Amino acid sequence: MVHLSWYLTVSALLFCIGVFGFLTRRNIIMMLLSIELMLNSVNLNLAAMSHYMEDLRGQVLVFFIIAVAAAEAAIGLGIVVTLFRNHRSVYTEDITTLKG
Amino acid sequence: MPIYLLLIPFLPLASFIFTLLFAKRLKKQAHWPPIIAVLISFLCACYAFDQVLHGTHINADLYTWFASAKFKASVGFLLDELTAVMLIVVTSVSSLVHIYSVGYMHDDPGYARFFSYLSLFTFSMLMLVLGNNFLQLYFGWEAVGLSSYLLIGFWYHKKSASDAGKKAFIVNRFGDFGFGLGIIVVFLVFGSVHYDTVFANVHQAVGQTFNFLGIDFDVISLMAILLFCGAVGKSAQIPLHVWLPDAMEGPTPVSALIHAATMVTAGVFLVARCNPIFSLSPAAMNLVTIIGALTCFFAATIALVQVDIKRVIAYSTVSQLAYMFIGCGVGAYGAGIFHLYTHAYFKALLFLGAGSVIHAMGDEQDIRKMGGLKKYLPVTYFTFLIASLSISGIPPFAGFFSKDEILAMAFASPVGAGKFAWFVGTVVAGMTAFYSFRLIFLTFHGEFRGTEEQKKHLHESPPTMTIPLTLLALGALAAGWVGVPEVLGGENGWAHFLAPVVGHPDVHLSHFTEWALMTISVAAGLTGIYLAYVMYMVKPQIPVELAKKHPKLYDILFNKYYVDEFYNATIVEPTINCGRKVLRGIVDGKIIEGVVNGVPGLIGRFSTLLAGLQNGRVQHYGGVMAVGAFILLWIFMM
Amino acid sequence: MVQLLFFYFALVVIGLGLRIVTAKNPVHCVLLMLVLFFHMAGLYLLLNAEFLAAVQIIVYAGAILVLYLFVLFLVDLREEVKMSPFIKKGKWLGIVGAIALFLTFLRGVMNFSLGPHGQYTIEKIQQMTHTKAMGEAIYTTYILPFEVAGIILLVAVIGGLAMAKREK
Fold first, then answer.
1. Which residues of B touch A100 (CB under 8 A)?
2. What is the torsion angle, in degrees rounded to the nearest 10, for the CA atoms of residue B373, residue B378, residue B380 and residue B381?
3. Which residue of B has its CA nearest to A98?
4. Rounded Cα distance, B30 and B105, in Å
5. What span, in angstroms and rounded, lies between the C-alpha atoms of B532 and B542?
6. Among B212, B192, B227, B246, CA closest to B69
7. What pTM does this model have?
8. Quick check: B630 contacting C, CB < 8 Å?
9. Which of A37, A59, C145, C148 counts the most CB atoms within 10 A of its CB?
10. Is 1.10.1040.10 the CATH classification of the domain at C2-120?
11. What per-residue string of b and e applies to B147-159 under the rule 16 or more CB within 10 Å gives b?
12. Where in chain C is the domain with CATH 1.20.120.1200?
């Protein structure tokens, strides 16, 4: 039998990997990809909890998270395109207009 | 509170404010408000005196500023015999000086300002003498000090004048410090600063002691000596006499009013007013007498060799004030006030006469450049002569009666230093006559020693100046006739009049002793006049030879015993150095500036450090958020 | 059997995750992500959530990753593979931070206890099929969030159009 805590551990590990990717990648698109990784880990967490609690609430929430993640990815990538238009670069170290 | 009493001080106050506010519009008519105000004050003072003669006494608070527990600070008026006398003196001399100033200050650009200051001074002096509590006395004291500063430094563009004003104020401050402490001791002992409460309960404080740093001080003596400190400062006695000669930088009417007749006599007034306290302290009485005697001699010796006409009269003032203190010190407060009253007239006359001379000589004050002025300035000469005879103590002039009264009282007094004071006083009487007539002979007699330019300018002063001179001469002649002693056939109305306030000295002099003392003092005066005549009219080479034979003595006297230089080196220079190096250099420069500049600098550096957090990079912000989340999680899990 | 499958899926997911965040070529990252999504779907199947597995593959693998690939057109890939994928000063800090975060989560997981159980038991779901169960739940209890999700998608469409317009 797979214990709940194993699912939770996997989810936590994946989340931390996502955090690491978000904090350290130079390319903005890779940053956004790491965010998708984090969202997936959360989805796994919720689905596992829902399964072990024998309630559908977690899985319904996963459904909505997937929908919202799609919308967010679309908008986020739209912003990246606009950023590229203005700065001609997709690297985070070149975009420092908020400095100060 | 009758209206005449209120008008006396408040009319000059109103005229001060009015003249100052409308100075530009009044221009050369600026003398009218002050003169009208002070003349009405004088009439009210005469009326008040008449009331007092018929037995009226007033002691009432006009306005209570605040009352806190035992302490009550109020503006109040006291009208008794002593106040009445002072009111007459102050208002009469002030009116005459106001009228004189119309002529003397005629061409001065600060005409209106001068008159407004004169009004301010009159108001302050009147508040001082009318007060019924120590606090009002102190207020008046400081206010006359302020007016004196403003008037001495009237020609403020002249550095010497503004320096003299500062010197007067600062030296007075030393005395006022002791005075303030004295008032505090009075309050601590009696629980009130009103005269009636203090003087009624003064007997209960006899024998009480005040422990300070392990030494027991007799409270009454402590009080008296501290109050006397103020008198020493204001009345220019040793060691705080140094400001009065320098105060001659002010216009001559100022010297006449303030530094002869009224402000400097405030010290004597203080001692006379506080006579219940002083009478119970033999230590204080002795101190007053000794300081009086020493100052008397000291100032007279300096006056012997001065060559500025106003300086001679200034030192003469210091010497005569010392006489008044001798009188008060030996218990004869009435005699001290008597001399105050006669001195006001003949000293003011001397100063105004000197002003007339200076005016005629085109602002020349050196008597070595004068001479033979009596044919050009007859009225001035005649009045000056009357004043000098008065100050020399020649009967029947006013000065004789008052000075003789003091000397007789000093001789017979039970106070220890009395006989010493009598001896010094008699010697100084001779010196006084000598230097006064030296002044007359050098200025008015002989050949004119000035320039041709000055000779062409010589003229008698206008009536606005000569009429006050004449009126004052009447005073210098006749003022003493109210106090003719019994031994000469009079009733000594003066002493009887003042007795309810100042008491009667407990002395008994046989008629023979009194006659003898009188003869000695008149003889001293006549000797002085004769010596002056010989040395300056008959054989004018004697003073020159004397000066050559004793050059060191002459230098010491001419340079006023180098007291100013001594004070400069021991007090003034160290204070200035301390101020510059310690206070400005270290405390202000390093400590305060260090904080004031250092704190912003520190904040600036810290904020620059914090600004490094915002480098515009999203991952950095994300990292910070991760750290925050981590910390919060740990806290929640604890 | 289930355990074996779980270990397989879990290990692959973790391994792929590590490779994704460290790969130089972004296209490789996206493709690896695709494989990762398939294995996530496998995990969902193990949890009796077949509808979710299907939705995951259709939406994530089918739509979002394609979107990423299109945006990767902007990147000059030849230059990209020559440089380090990480920012200059943060790699070790990131590792330390991630490990610290993981240890924190681990501690939470250890002290974790489940709440009260609901009524959708595993047998019930298996009997009425997960899809129907999800449909029942969404269209009755969670209808409002459903509509809101619809609006969010509408906003995304409008936003995308607004951003893509070129200034004239």
1. 611, 614, 616
2. 60
3. B616
4. 11
5. 11
6. B192
7. 0.71
8. yes
9. A59
10. no
11. bbbbbbbbbeeee
12. 2-120
